[in-house]
Amino acid sequence: MIDWRLVARGGVFIDDRPLGVRDGCPRGCIPALDDPLTTDAAGGACLDDDRIVFGIMINGESRAYPKHQMETHEMVNDTLGGRRIGIPYCTLCGSTQAYFTDSVPDGVETPVLRTSGLLSRSNKVMFDLVSYSLLDTFTGSAVTGPLREVGVRLDQATVVASTWGAWKATHPDTTIVAEDGGIGFVYLLDPLRGRDDNGPIFPVGDVDPRLDVQELIVGVEYEEGPVVAFAKRVAIEHLESGGVVEFADVTILLDGSGLRAVRADGTDVATHEAFWFAWSQFWPDTALWAP
């Protein structure tokens, strides 16, 4: 639930452009990218192998969303594996999430996710262009409007942050967003220019001292147990040295150069990366895995 005392304007305007509009935001919003043009892995040769992508796999279909493109748009609406998804990227929190926007109650129109221009604990607040309901980006829960009235909480898919080289080696059939996004745009490789290098630049609540503020973690929330966070660097080092990374019934595996969570039967448990300050803000009672 959003603590409205910690909601602030992030310095940009609402992105209320209709779905599919290819123009930018002359009024100063962060323009979502809708249904981007994609290419096969060979068509992604313009991207150096050491560049970071956010990889998503749904129903056996994989796609990579380059980080520098996501830094420009901070929101993508797309179809992958036959499912409709919305992908917010909060640059301030280091978190990319993939929500199934087709997982809504009967009679509710498929949401179109957009950036509202508001922040909660330095995390972007997204909204649905169809109903103008605000949603908590970290949890996918509607907090205002018609979606809140029917209790919408969007299901998530796993997002893996990996180098492009490692992702396409692991997923050779992957697609990737085209170099110009299908909108004729020339993307800067470093659009943020180190903006967040010195920690949060907007107000947050109390910061959990167990890890450094911007330590990257992979977080897991699942019904059968507590919310848990895995420090990414430590988990990867442990796995690469032959160790096992487990908590309750969840096992963490390498995927490309990133991490994925699975159950004993191999099915995915939704995971994504975030800075520790962000994850611990929204899940203050989270358990922290240690080797």
Describe the structure.
The protein has helices at residues 67-73, 145-149, 164-170, 232-240, 276-282; strands spanning 7-9, 33-34, 38-40, 52-58, 61-66, 75-80, 83-90, 95-96, 98-100, 113-120, 123-128, 134-136, 156-157, 160-163, 175-177, 216-220, 228-231, 245-247, 250-255, 258-262, 268-269, 271-275, 287-288. The chain is mainly beta and 291 residues long. The strands form 5 sheets. Strands 2, 6, 7, 8, 9 and 13 form a 6-stranded mixed beta sheet that branches. A 5-stranded mixed beta sheet has the order 3-15-5-4-14. A 4-stranded antiparallel beta sheet has the order 1-10-11-12. The model has no long low-confidence stretch (mean pLDDT 92).
SS-derived structural category: mainly beta
Rg, please? 18 Å
Detail the poorly predicted runs. none
* Shape assignment: globular
How far is it from the N-terminal to the C-terminal residue, by CA?
Answer: 31 Å
The helix/strand series, from N terminus to C terminus, equals: EEEEEHEEEEEEEHEEHEEEHEEEEEHE
State which percent range the strand residues make up. 25-35%
According to DSSP, the number of beta strands is 23
How many separate domains make up the residues? Answer: 2
Average predicted local confidence, pLDDT = 92
What about the largest sheet?
Answer: 6 strands, mixed
Please count the helical segments.
5
Specify the helix fraction band.
10-25%
